[in-house]
Amino acid sequence: MKSMQIELTGALKQKERLAQLGGAVAKISHDLRNILSSAQLFTDRIEANEDPTIARLAPKLVCSISRAIHLCETTLVYGRA
Asked: Would you say 2 and 49 are in contact if contact means Cβ atoms under 8 Å apart?
């Protein structure tokens, strides 16, 4: 009986920690997505630059930021599930 109580208490504490972790990940993903969206606006303007070096590098930057935003969005969707 005592061991079952200890096991149940441990399971409840673990569930609470996981819920807190999920909430923290969702908040971080949300904030990071907002930051990345601002960066994406700047890269859209950079992409229009006529300098050949910038024109060559801008798509890589845009792609990286887009991938990071997608990761944040999928993390948020997973957290809501």
From this structure: no
Matching residue, tokens 């960066």: 39
Cα-based distances in Å from 11 to 15, 17, 51: 6, 10, 59
Tell me the CA distances in angstroms from 70 to 7, 11, 28, 51, 79, one per residue in order. 39, 33, 14, 28, 14
The two three-digit tokens of residue 65, written as one number: 């930021």
Q: Are 58 and 47 in contact (CB under 8 A)?
A: yes
Distance CA 40, CA 6 (A): 50
Domains of the chain, with CATH numbers? 2-80 (1.10.287)
- pLDDT tens profile 18-34: 888 888 888 888 888 88
